Amino acid sequence: MSNQLYGPVDDVAQQAGYEPDHPPRMGFLTDTSVCIGCKACEVACKEWNGVPGTELDLLGTSYDNTGDLGANTWRHVAFVEQAKPRRELVDLGMPAMGPPGGQEAEQPDQDLRWLMMSDVCKHCTHAACLDVCPTGSLFRTEYGTVVVQEDICNGCGYCVPACPYGVLDVRPGDGRAWKCTLCYDRLSDGMEPACAKACPTDSIQFGPVEELRERGQQRVEELRAAGIDEAQLYGADPGDGVGGDGCFFLLLDEPEVYGLPPDPIVTTRDLPSMWKHAAAAAATVAATAVAAFVGSRR
Amino acid sequence: MTGTRASTTTSTRASESGVEYRSYYGQPVIKRPTWKTPDVPVYFFLGGLAGGSSVLAELGELSGRFRLARAGQVTAAAASAGSVFALIHDLGRPERFLNMLRVFKPTSPLSVGSWVLASYGTLAGAGAVSRVAGVLPPAGRCATAGAAALGPVMTTYTAVLVADTAVPAWHEGYRELPFVFAGSALASAGGLGMLAAPREAGPARLAAVAGTGMELAADRLMSHRLGFLAEPYHHGRAGRWMRAGKVLGAAGAAGALGALVREPGRRGGRVASVLSAISASALLASSLCTRFGVFEAGRASADDPKYTVVPQRERLDARNARNV
Questions:
Q1: How many domains does chain A have?
Q2: In what helix (H) or strand (E) does residue B123 lie, and over which residues does it extend?
């Protein structure tokens, strides 16, 4: 089979060994252009999955008091406040200060823009976490998603630094690695994941990945036609470094602004070369040792 | 809102190399490893020491240096047991350590490594027991030879383990790290031979010098090629560990070289013996320091978003420029 480690894959579930009659690959399109930052997704996810709560914390990062994805956060809403050049907008005739008609008052040349994004596990086509898991705890489901089997995980923690998006972590006090399951239990009963169900603006759209990619592309074109040139899809390209994400995003700025890596590449891509270099080093050790004995009098 | 200028809270930072990049409040992009210290650096060190010792032990046996061979075998067994203990101790659920052997997964260096370690440890242990207790010598000889065959793998697989992550300082150094670890392991094994069997330690001294040379050269090459990604290896806590490793390694190798020229013998060799022992200890300490240094450099590399964002942004921009 081609592209086992890197590169586009047509059928990720089949590559993982499922029969051809498996269900279509399911994922998320998270359209940040309609996110209102309500965090219903964070709450619904924790409620459904029984994810432990954390103490109330005020992090000082706008309205983001969750911080980051982790073992106890499988949906994380990011908030970014930006100054942006003032856009020519439709005049709605909003009330202003001062007498009518005397509105040559100085308009600020900067606007405040608020970016809000609900981050989640990307369920990559080439998932580094899955590749490096030594116990077989992480596996690919028939839906093409990536899930941790918590009764097998022994907390070796290898998946944590392997993930190019920084999704997984080891749960303190528990010892095992945890992450979004794409509500595998709900999928198996024909339901959509909790976060998608709870999202009031349909920023989180759940469905077959192929269909979502088309929808995302249409939405980007729509936004660009409306003058929002920064609109871009992130993680939708099967030719990218992780083979495309099952859960991808429509962003309104560069990925790193949201804390996402600009150009992630699955670490496993370089594994064959790593082993070659290791073999060369091992051979050097053996040869050097032999030479040391041959070249020594005593 | 009129008249106020909203401040930009997405950071636009200049990295030390002067490149600007943006991040989410300066927060890390990837997660730092949850691996514990000293567990994992010690696991690396003991595994390398064991592997190198097995190789020297086998060659010692074949060349009639039986004291050196015995010392190497005992070290290999003890160090590999220690390595296994450190690995299990680091697990989040140590009681589930056997799950490492549920599957054999070629895409996971930790799976491959666990199988190598389990096989190697069994062989090294069996060989050492046979040697020390004098039981089943032919089986013991086979076991020791088997351990020696796996020895070189033991000195390098841990480098693949750290490189096969998203940690920039580790992943981008994947070409040279195996040589850093292998050289360090060989030097530590040579040092052990110098300590434990000084009268037969000629080859051990040579191996120690060569190993140190390999490690230093590979490290220099890696720093050069990594450019600004090598910063974590030179700054902060990791930088201190790496420098200690280099200084101790150079000192130890110099001492070993000196001892080669003037070997400890019966007459006037007291001082030379002591110096040899000090050099050997320095070599062992150096190997340990290097592992701590690499480990801490990885943590620092994961913690700072610039090491992830800057190279990726450059790569992406270059690709987009080509595709326009």
A1: 2
A2: helix B109-133
The total number of structural domains in chain B stands at 1
Residue in chain B closest to A162 (alpha carbons) equals B165
- AA identity, residue A119: D
The CATH number that applies at residue B37 is: 1.20.1630.10
For residue A200, what are the domain limits?
A: 12-85+108-265
Q: Min CA distance, B121 vs chain A (Å)?
A: 18
Where in the sequence is the domain holding B278, given as residue range(s)?
Answer: 33-313
| A interface test, pick of B27, B32, B34 with most A CB neighbours within 10 Å | B34
- Burial of B149 (C-beta count, 10 Å sphere; 0-12/13-18/19+): middle
Q: How would you write the pLDDT of chain B (324 residues) with one tens digit per residue?
A: 333 333 334 556 555 556 789 999 999 999 999 999 999 999 999 999 999 999 999 999 999 999 999 999 999 999 999 999 999 999 999 999 999 999 999 999 999 999 999 999 999 999 999 999 999 999 999 999 999 999 999 999 999 999 999 999 999 999 999 999 999 999 999 999 999 999 999 999 999 999 999 999 999 999 999 999 999 999 999 999 999 999 999 999 999 998 877 655 555 578 888 999 999 999 999 999 999 999 999 999 999 999 999 999 999 999 999 987
Query: Is position B268 within any domain?
Result: yes
Instruction: Note whether A292 contacts B97, CB cutoff 8 Å.
Output: no
Tell me, yes or no, whether A255 and A283 share the same domain: no
Give me the sign of the Cα torsion angle B179, B183, B188, B189: positive
* A26-31 and A247-251 strand pairing: parallel
The interface predicted TM-score of the complex, written ipTM, equals: 0.94
A78 forms beta bridges with A117
